[in-house]
Amino acid sequence: MLDEDQLSENEDEDLLFEHHRIVCDPGQGLVRLDKFLTDRLPNVTRTKIQKGIDEGFVSVNDKPIKSNYRVHPNDVIIISFPEPPRDTEVIPENIPLNIVYEDDSLLVINKPAGMVVHPAYQNWTGTLVNALAFHFQNLPQMPGNEGKPGLVHRIDKDTSGLLVIAKTEKAMTALARQFFDHTIERTYNALVWGVPDPPEATINVHVGRSPKDRRITVAFPEGNSGRHAVTHYKVLKDLRYVSLVECKLETGRTHQIRAHMKYIGHPLFNDSMYGGDQIVKGTVFSKYRQFVENCFKLIPRQALHAKTLGFIHPVTREFMQFDSELPEDFLAVLSKWENYVQFN
């Protein structure tokens, strides 16, 4: 990925290391190179990409290129830097963990919002995996999942809530099987714009990466693309302009709840990636706009919390279920809306 530090250091060195190789599809349309890469590389701005192209870190078909070049079918785009790519070594870091439960096979953690689950671009340190590497030795890794010890699932950086971590190979295999079979019980609490109608229903709509922006998951109601995805929702509190909704996952696709709620017209409150950081429901009065802005400041993230988690223990075979309280920022914004609706 294009990192500002990589773009500014060691620019005079001749040796470059390949970080990304993208082969365009045979049916690829003629799109500007900088726009094409912006859509393909998550969390990288178009400005950074243009700077990287201008400084010679991007080539097409082994030739230097300009930002306004239009990509063609079967083009081979290579992004290189003076430093070699990061390997899968995880640096242990003494980061406190909120451990809800632990035994010899597994542990359940309540992850705070803002913590990335595993190292990746722009977040090589300070992640849950870095913390796990410090507190636990020799956690297992799933095949093809090197650099992510103990993980059998994840939640988004700005989503808070419960995660189960495997401490043994047996536990990892058993838990991964339950996730694959969709027998893990997971419920989330979300604050969404508006009040879904009906107040309780099932969203059975395929979701997948947007062809326009790979960072975003979109719905494919025709079912001709994406993957099967099912979310059961129920309105817990009707607050006129927003509502507290319980979402039970039957499948666990990337950004599933965020994409499904956006699809039915009720994006998560302050979810900037899915349009929830705009006023979707309410009045045009400046007093209301100021109130919403104050709410955004209280919870500067999507209002989503992984509240409960249930699974069969890999060793005892007993069903275990865990529940977590809503975090302070979520409770604060919920209380603010409750008061607003009561007195307005």
Question: What attributes characterize this protein structure?
Answer:
disordered N terminus, nine-stranded mixed beta sheet, 344 residues, alpha+beta, Pseudouridine synthase, 23% helix, 27% strand, four-stranded antiparallel beta sheet, Structural Genomics Hypothetical 15.5 Kd Protein In mrcA-pckA Intergenic Region, Chain A
What does this structure look like?
There is one protein chain. It contains eight helices and 17 strands. The chain is α+β, with helices and mostly antiparallel strands. The protein folds into three domains: 78 residues, RNA-binding S4 domain (Structural Genomics Hypothetical 15.5 Kd Protein In mrcA-pckA Intergenic Region, Chain A), CATH 3.10.290; 82 residues, Pseudouridine synthase (2-Layer Sandwich); 159 residues, Pseudouridine synthase, CATH 3.30.2350. The strands form four sheets. Strands 7, 8, 9, 10, 11, 14, 15, 16 and 17 form a nine-stranded mixed sheet that branches. The chain is globular.
Overall geometry comes to globular
Q: Count up the domains.
A: 3
The beta-strand count equals 17
Overall mean pLDDT:
88
Query: What integer value in Å does the Rg equal?
Result: 22 Å
- Number of helices in the DSSP assignment: 8
Report on the biggest sheet: 9 strands, mixed
- What proportion strand? 25-35%
H/E series, N to C?
Answer: HEEHHEEEEEEHEHEEEEEEHHEEH
Low-confidence stretches: 1-14
**What structural class do the secondary elements suggest?**
alpha+beta
Distance between the termini: 48 Å
Query: Could you give me the name of the CATH homologous superfamily of the largest domain?
Result: Pseudouridine synthase
